[in-house]
Amino acid sequence: MRDGGRNDERQAAIVAKLKSAGLRTTRPRVALAHLLFGQGDRHITAEALHSEARAAGLSISQATIYNTLNQFHEAGILREVQVEKARSYFDTNISDHHHFYVEGEGRLIDIEQNAISVDKLPSSPEGFRVTGVDVVIRLTK
Amino acid sequence: MRDGGRNDERQAAIVAKLKSAGLRTTRPRVALAHLLFGQGDRHITAEALHSEARAAGLSISQATIYNTLNQFHEAGILREVQVEKARSYFDTNISDHHHFYVEGEGRLIDIEQNAISVDKLPSSPEGFRVTGVDVVIRLTK
DNA sequence: ATTTATTTTAGAATTATTCTAAAATACTTG
DNA sequence: CAAGTATTTTAGAATAATTCTAAAATAAAT
């Protein structure tokens, strides 16, 4: 079932990507990388990826899904966006302002609104209205 | 043990605050409002507030802490900032960009970097470096 | 081929938060 | 004020996302 090498090329690209990220090319990692990077850019939760993997006939444990996503993230080939159901900090300062978040310490520091300019907000999709704009600047030592 | 009415004034201010937010002035709510609004602006987690309440000799259940914080938030007298341990979306687009987050649907939509200008970043505190700047614009119908 | 280091795994554990249904309390009306 | 009704609080269980554990499997190095 050769295809002129097109699949081999994609395969090689994935393997190269993992290698240059300093990751061993194990079967689960390569398989997940295919799901993640085989199409255009995408946002996906751990759970959804797990479903996709199962649907594709791959048997990969939940822990591996999480491990792999975190490894890809640490290696810089995946970005993490946190939105819902976070550990919430409640802030008595309800004026429009933003935050530094000190990783590790779990500490928040206010940034007064006009220390950041989030001008030029993009127009929101038809039928939706903006309920909030949150900027979090993450910090480490 | 009168004090010339200073405590009564603070008490009255808290009560007024709850009232005008459309909240009944129950004992637990008033007590928590004192902890939250009695000093300058603060960031606090549910757990930390619970500890403070206990330390102050108040016996308030965990559920009430959460209920109260959410009610204050809905009423607009408290702001919520989500940072750690969120339900994470992993994004294969690692270029600098931001997101719309559609509440309810739990859907993320990319905003290309230059559709928002987060100029004028504040300088980070001594000894820290910025590891990321995340803007999430929350949307509802 | 053997050794050594890294990964994967199933399942349990953890953590933040929400749910449930009953008991307590606040507001309202007579 | 007394009684009724609606709202809150509560303890404890439930849920959901994620991480941990320690053993089995696999990859890379010798």
Count of individual helical segments of chain A: 4
Which percent range describes the beta-strand content of chain A?
25-35%
Radius of gyration of chain A: 20 Å
CATH class of the largest domain in chain A: Mainly Alpha
pLDDT below 50 for ≥5 consecutive residues: which ranges of chain A? none
| Overall CATH architecture of the largest domain in chain A | Orthogonal Bundle
Query: Approximately how much helix is present in the residues of chain A?
Result: 25-40%
State the main characteristics.
homodimer; 141 residues; alpha+beta; Arc Repressor Mutant, subunit A; three-stranded mixed sheet; 4 helices; 29% strand; elongated; DNA-binding
Describe the structure.
Two copies of one chain form a homodimer. The first copy, chain A, folds into two domains: 6-74, Arc Repressor Mutant, subunit A, CATH 1.10.10; 97-139. Chain A contains four helices and seven strands. In chain A, 35% of the residues lie in helices and 29% in strands. In chain A, helix 1 crosses helix 2 (27-37) and helix 3 packs across helix 4. Chain A is elongated. Chain A has helices at 6-20, 27-37, 46-55, 62-74; strands at 43-45, 79-84, 87-91, 97-102, 107-112, 117-119, 129-140. Chain A has a three-stranded mixed sheet with strand order 5-4-7, with no helix packed on it. The longest helix of chain A has 15 residues, at 6-20. The N and C termini of chain A lie far apart (53 Å). The model of chain A has no long low-confidence stretch (mean pLDDT 79). Chain A has 141 residues and is an alpha+beta fold. Strand 7 (129-140) of chain A pairs antiparallel with strand 7 of chain B. Chain A binds a DNA duplex (30 and 30 nucleotides) through residues 24-29, 45-47, 60-64, 66-67, 85-88.
